[in-house]
Amino acid sequence: MLDAHIVKARRTFTVDVRIQLQPGERLGLFGASGAGKSTILSCLAGIETPDAGEIVFRDHRLFPVGLPLYQRPLAYLTQSDWLFPHLSVADNVCFGIKNHNSDGTKEWIEELAMRLDLTSLWNESARQISGGQARRVALARMLSRRP
Amino acid sequence: MTAPVTVSPSRPSTYVKTVWWGRLAMLVFTLALLYPVVGLGTPVGSWQWDGSIPGSTASAVRTSLLLTGLAILIDILLGTPVAWYLSHPRGRDAVVWEAAVLISVLMPPLALGILLSLAFGPQNALGGWLLRIGVPTSNSPTAFVATQVYVSIGYYILAARAALAAVPRDLERVASLLGSPPFEVFRRITFPLAKLGLAAALSLAWVRALGEFGAVIVTSYYPAGMPVQIWVNLQDAGMPAVMPLLVVFLLTAMPLPWLIHLIAQRRSSNA
Questions:
Q1: CB-based contacts of B248: which residues, under 8 Å, 6+ apart?
Q2: What is the full DSSP assignment across B216-248?
């Protein structure tokens, strides 16, 4: 369950939204460019800190106090790909996996690679792939932890 | 109707000319930069080597390499976390810390040596206490290493800070969002991407510490490192005794930073 009240000042206006989601519910954010959609998501992910409000997600208080990014039980696909350029596609996708031998991990990664059409570039360097391929790798990397 | 787009043919001859002008300019610059090395060929009389020279060349080489190595290790252990902190500013206080590091770099070596000998001297509370617990703060390996750390760590921190700051924060944030705690982010992301710059920082600190004379001669005349020994040789036996030690100095000072730089460059280009 997500219960969030986010207040964040932008240059010319203040984002002030309240979001309540039950397990299984989905929410899409629509609005004009610069309306604050990314700000809301960044605050939920922890990349930006709200000026005021409260964020509780699955019994974890994300704000105030501010749970460190690495302890947040969520996944976030950034607008830019931000692949790790010194690593291969495989190492990028598997970056967040702590236990490679856990049940079903290998199968899940293989499924991601197949469904996102990454098998042919699995061992390529991340800095040598195209923009579209990079987008798919970023998506696979985010999903690899099964958020 | 739009006009057809024409693509002008490539002009390889212009490109080749630019390349050769560039090379020529670099050659002239390099010759001017390395011109002082010509001094090694100056007739100064028969070079004197070790036995006939007051003091010990081998001892000076050993002192310089071992103690400078130790000083650089301390630079890395203390300087890297500081450089990392400065490269991730969290408030206005970063300006104060940067200024402190800059002051240590800007301080003239001789002035630093005098200040160190006063601040750590036996007449001072700290120096007296260190002496009582068996840590002599002048003319000792401890004084030698401490002086080298003081003169070189600022250079290491400033260069390392620039290298670490060049790694995009978004990459570190993405790594954190993927569950990596701060040290793991540094080990797996920040360090590999900054290692070429960190190698340059290490080279700078190494050369700065190994070549230090002004501060070291005040705080630690003994054990004599290579710069002090060169000065002693010059005073006692003249240029013929200086030249061989100068060659040894150049041969020992250059390979390590050069090697580190080459390794970091090769790994970065392979990654």
A1: B57, B61, B226
A2: HHHH--SS--HHHHHHHHHHHH-HHHHHHHHHH
What average pLDDT does chain B have? 86
pLDDT block averages, 10 residues each, chain A of length 147? 90 91 90 89 88 89 82 87 94 89 85 93 92 94 89
Interchain CB distance below 8 Å, A80 and B177: no
Q: How far is A101 from chain B (nearest CA, A)?
A: 17
* Alpha carbons A83 and B212: distance in angstroms, whole number: 43
- Nearest by CB to B179, which of A45, A46, A145? A145
The ranges of chain B with pLDDT < 50 are: 51-54
Tell me the domains of chain B and their CATH numbers.
51-270 (1.10.3720.10)
A93 chain-B contacts, CB cut-off 8 A: none
pLDDT value at residue A94: 93
Strand partners, A61: A56
CA dist B208 and B247 (Å) reads 18
Please give the model's pTM, rounded to 2 decimal places: 0.83
Contact A8, A14 (CB under 8 A): yes
Which tokens in the block code for residue B175?
């790594």
Q: Where are the beta strands (DSSP E) in A1-147?
A: 2-9, 14-21, 52-57, 60-63
**Partner-chain contact B170 A78, CB within 8 Å:** yes
B246 and A CB contact within 8 Å: no
